[in-house]
Structures are given as structure tokens and as C-alpha cells.
Please model this.
Amino acid sequence: MEIKIELTKNPKEKPQDETKLGFGHIFTDHMFVMNYDTGMGWHDARIVPYGEISLSPAAMCLHYGQEIFEGLKAYRTADGSVQLFRPDENFKRMNVSNERMVIPAIDEEFVLEALKKLVKLEEDWVPHTEGASLYIRPFIISTDPYVGVKPADHYLFMIILSPSGAYYSTGLNPVKIYVEQKYVRAVRGGTGFAKTAANYAISLKGQDEAHKQDYEQVLWLDGVEQKYIEEVGSMNIFFVIDGEVITPKLTGSVLPGITRKSAIEICKNKGYKVSERRISIEEVAKAYDDGKLDEVFGTGTAAVISPVGHLKWGDKVMTINDNKIGEISQMLYDTLTGIQWGKLPDDYNWIVKI
Ligand code: COI
Model:
């Protein structure tokens, strides 16, 4: 399919101070758009000036949330070139989410080419400052003007770009996480493994209550017994207990994170014992009491590696590794960002050059 390009007549001013970008507030000059209609398939691929879209107030995505999204980043290397980290994994996962949400599949190779074209066009928006990157948000929404509940016949696929800094205002400093005991994020047979808006909407109540207690994020327990650890919502979670690196296994209610998968590969490659298994909050608390909980950290595209300094479970507040970044968290951060920013060789073949 051909990609038509319409350039903006009003390019925006780029951010002057890249240390103050924040996360996800600023958008570039152009976006990629493509339509789907039953009977026609995906068509009308185009890069157009970034701007508002017009939707019927009855558009199905607004009522029943039939949408999916992805998150990845473009990084600027020391020689000024721009590169992506495992983008094929994002589009593969997008189709897994599509399948769950009854949204038509995309051609993974075509949308990767479209993304490369868009990022190439917006190359000057990729930040030059250490720690900042161009956050990429591909997403699909259902657009039929209809208030009945059914899979739609019309969709919009879009990619928007946002020059961004760290997801958490604390940067690489440890975050405070609150173990949610009342609400749940996902259940067996639900949508936990898909990257769809519903999983994030459902998490807001817990996050709001955590914020009121001065905690940044919520650690979700399983939706049946509220005993086994699942994920944080904005990232997957890892524990280092007595030298073993443990992360909850993918049982269908946890997002299969690309940074999670990469962190597992790096740890195994460096000779650490890594287990993907069920881990209960009791096991974590016991390890803490026994002095064996060495590190806790989250992994995510936006969050990269985020050490957890405080973990609150009911009245128990666990201070992990003296609220400092641990050895494995630091190693993973250095390795991942080293590969992403081209400071380390791409030994795993994860980089796609623009
Ligand atoms: C990402 O890490 O890219 C995500 O999509 C998580 C989102 C909460 C920012």
C-alpha cells in the first residue's frame, strides 16, 4: 500500500529545554493514519499534519472501549542517528491485542515501514539529551456511529509521537509502590494480557487511592485469591530473593512486556538464575523479614527499569535495599539503555535503524 504524505504548513517550535519534557505532553508535527472498513480492509495509509480528529459522538470506541494501543521509543545515538528498540515485538503484540478485542489484524511489516517513514520525517524531534527519547504511541479505535454492543466495521489506526523524558518524576530513583488489596486489574479469561484501554481505566481507582497515601503506583494481585503478584500496570515487576531473579509468569492476566522479556534474556545471559513463576505477596514479605529480599524493580518501555524503594502491604512497609538502586537493577538499566542509545553493541540484534 502506498503511503501519501501531506506536510504541515505550520511546523511547531521544538522544546528548548529537553531536561523538562516530562512524559507524553508534547506531540510532533505529523502523524500516521490508516482506515479500515469491512469489505475493504486497511486502506488510505497517510502521513498528515498532527491535529484533532473528528468522530461521531456515537463512535463505538467512546462507549464500549473497543481499542488497543502500543508504546515504544526512538532513541538518538551519539553519532546523531536514530534507532528503534524491538519494534517488531510491539506490532506482533498489537495483533495479539487485536485478536482479543475483535479488531482486524494489521500487516506488521507494513506498519513498521510506516513507522520508520514517520520517524524519519520527524527525525529532528528525537531528543538529543541523555535519558530523553521520542515516545511512539500506535493505537486503533473503533469509529462506527452506533450505540449497540458489537465488534465495529470501521476503525482508525494512528501513530502519534511525543518527545519525552522519564515516565516517573523520580527518574531512576526508587518509586513507592502500594500493594492493592481491594480492587483487581485482571482476571482469568479477561483482557489482562492485551494492551487495551480497559486495563488502564480499571486501574485508576487503585492508583488514585495509592496517590492519596503518597505512593506512586499500585502492585496488582491476582483477581481470584488476591494472593499472587501480577504486575504494576505501567510496568512488569521483578523480585531478587536470595540471588534468584523472579517475575510472575504470564498466565493471561499479565501484560507480556517487551522490556520484561529483554530483562529476562539479559539476566540469563549474565548467568543469573531467573524464574518465571507464581510468587505470592506472603513469600515476598517473608523474604523481607528474613533479610533475603535484595531488590524489587519494574520494567516497561516508558518506565525502563524502575527500582522500588518502598513496598506497602497493609500496615507493613518494606524498605528495599535501603531505598537505593540495586546491583541487578543498575546492570539492567545500563545494559538496556546502553543498547537503546547505541552506547553498547547490539549483541541481541534488537535494534532497528531508521
Ligand atoms: C509503556 O510502557 O509504553 C506503556 O504503554 C505503559 C503506559 C502506562 C505508559
